[in-house]
Design the sequence.
């Protein structure tokens, strides 16, 4: 008897939690298919009369700068992730595979940097980006995404220490130099760690709002976050268009989640605890 | 990969004679490690240490961000932060986010515990509870602007159960921070939940079986198996939650821009710097936050030593 009550309570709370997660999204999804007239006259919980009304999506895409947003996000994402991987693996290789004077200091510098909350330091980072003449260019976001990711270095360091040094030595006996070893031996073996970094970093960059907002104010440099943010002005009262834009931004995330579920869970577990 | 992992015993024996030499082999080689480090270190210094250093310097000036001459004002900015109530009082807004963060951890722990037992549709529930964490922050902001707007989703739901005119969720200064902190809980709970669930599931199944044999009930299992297994991740999450509450920024900035008494310390800092061009004062505010976060982290290291070593 007691266990039946407990089981019922358990499923009730799980269903309630799921509803809390889903309902705000479902109402936005329904809203995206409504006409302007419908949006004004029907309540949020009423489904649209025509589920095939894609007009709002067309408006969001063509007038909302979403195409530009996806292109800019795509460029920034690919270049920054590639940069993060190169920088992170090089740093991890140097620190893990060499014993040199100053190694502890270097490690400490990377460690200390993880503690600095990045939003607040933008007050001063802004001056550095201006001095480098990168303000209002994609370069600003790329440099900041690729150059300040210390968590990636830790993921590579952890993984690299599990690759036996004997492999380096075998390659060295075959006459390979350090760069060949890094490029031909270590990098291919780091594939699982690289996949983890691609996933965590990819999600983070796709979702980042403040850095593009602060450093790339010009309209044609809008990424998806900032393009969507700008919907609030011109489409202020057209909630159905805002909803369509929001759904367009969520769909790639949903697809990525459905296909990469296991990797995302694993990646976040190894990334979040640093 | 498979070709690399031979018989471990064999590998160990093959390595034995080298191991004394290994240290030498991998030592030395003078400049080579620095060639690998030069780019990562350059980025680290230019994008992290120079800004932090500059920030400390700016915080002692009344710089406006443009003027080539910076006027040194000593600790004047810090005195202003702690004496002008309108600057300091925004820290009280953090209390809403702190309460939200604690609710978030409790909920995450509750659902992680539930799902660690045998459950139908476990992966579905896990996915649904976790998914909000992955969504773009601006998209979440817009979803909840619609959710909280007058006549929006929340009002419609309340009307369905007979509650009318519940008030302005985002317009009323006494409600706005609760609404925004609630949105943050909705957004971030999934991450804590998945981390807790991962830690609980890393407990070997035999422990539960042994507990069953000893006649343990679910509460005993929670108290004596689950709780100790996630003590560390719980501690880390708690510290991160405090730091996150103090530096709450994205949800309120996107949704209200800090209007109606929802301004947080970080919103105030970036507005001071970029809207009102008081880089000196803003830097001092950033320094205050940085120091608070560093102190919290130091406390965490003391309470939960070896965090890194054990978690990995």
Sequence:
């Amino acid at each position: 008897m007691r266990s039946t009550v407990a089981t019922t309570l358990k499923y009730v709370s799980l269903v309630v939690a799921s509803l809390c997660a889903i309902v705000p999204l479902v109402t936005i999804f329904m809203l995206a298919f409504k006409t302007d007239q419908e949006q004004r006259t029907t309540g949020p919980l009423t489904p649209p009369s025509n589920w095939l009304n894609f007009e709002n999506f067309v408006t969001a895409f063509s007038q909302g700068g979403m195409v530009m947003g996806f292109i800019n996000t795509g460029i920034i994402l690919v270049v920054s992730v590639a940069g993060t991987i190169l920088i992170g693996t090089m740093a991890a290789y140097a620190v893990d595979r060499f014993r040199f004077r100053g190694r502890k200091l270097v490690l400490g510098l990377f460690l200390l940097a993880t503690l600095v909350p990045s939003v607040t330091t933008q007050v001063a980072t802004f001056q550095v980006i201006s001095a480098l003449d990168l303000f209002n260019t994609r370069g600003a976001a790329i440099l900041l995404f690729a150059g300040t990711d210390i968590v990636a270095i830790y993921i590579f360091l952890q993984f690299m220490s599990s690759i036996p040094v004997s492999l380096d030595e075998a390659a060295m006996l075959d006459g390979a130099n350090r760069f060949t070893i890094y490029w031909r031996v270590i990098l291919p073996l780091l594939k699982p760690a690289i996949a983890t970094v691609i996933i965590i970093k990819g999600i983070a960059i796709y979702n980042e709002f403040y850095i593009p907002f602060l450093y790339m104010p010009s309209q044609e440099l809008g990424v998806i976050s900032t393009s969507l943010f700008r919907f609030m002005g011109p489409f202020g009262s057209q909630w159905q268009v805002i909803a369509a834009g929001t759904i367009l931004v969520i769909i790639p995330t949903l697809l990525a989640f459905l296909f990469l579920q296991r990797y995302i869970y694993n990646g976040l577990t190894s990334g979040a605890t640093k | 990969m498979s070709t690399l992992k031979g018989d471990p015993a064999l590998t160990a024996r093959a390595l034995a004679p080298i191991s004394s030499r290994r240290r030498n082999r991998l030592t030395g080689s003078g400049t080579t490690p620095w060639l690998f480090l030069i780019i990562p270190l350059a980025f680290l210094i230019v994008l992290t240490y120079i800004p932090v250093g500059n920030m400390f310097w700016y915080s002692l000036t009344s710089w406006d961000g443009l003027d080539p001459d910076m006027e040194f004002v000593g600790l004047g900015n810090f005195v202003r932060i702690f004496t002008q109530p309108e600057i300091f009082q925004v820290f009280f807004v953090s209390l809403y986010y702190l309460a939200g963060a604690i609710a978030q951890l409790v909920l995450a722990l509750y659902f992680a515990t539930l799902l660690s037992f045998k459950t139908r549709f476990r992966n579905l529930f896990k996915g649904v509870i976790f998914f909000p964490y992955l969504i773009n922050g601006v998209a979440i902001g817009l979803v909840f602007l619609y959710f909280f707007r007058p006549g929006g989703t929340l009002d419609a739901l309340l009307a369905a159960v007979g509650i009318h005119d519940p008030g302005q969720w985002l317009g009323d200064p006494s409600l706005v921070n609760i609404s925004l902190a609630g949105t943050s809980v909705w957004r971030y709970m999934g991450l804590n939940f998945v981390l807790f669930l991962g830690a609980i599931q890393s407990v070997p199944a035999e422990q539960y079986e042994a507990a069953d044999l000893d006649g343990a009930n679910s509460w005993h299992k929670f108290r004596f198996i689950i709780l100790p297994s996630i003590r560390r991740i719980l501690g880390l999450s708690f510290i991160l939650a405090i730091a996150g509450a103090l530096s709450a920024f994205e949800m309120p900035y996107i949704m209200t821009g800090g209007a109606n008494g929802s301004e947080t310390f970080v919103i105030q800092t970036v507005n001071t710097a970029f809207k009102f061009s008081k880089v000196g004062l803003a830097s001092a505010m950033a320094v205050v936050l940085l120091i608070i976060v560093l102190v919290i982290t130091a406390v965490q290291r003391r309470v939960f030593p070896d965090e890194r070593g054990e978690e990995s």
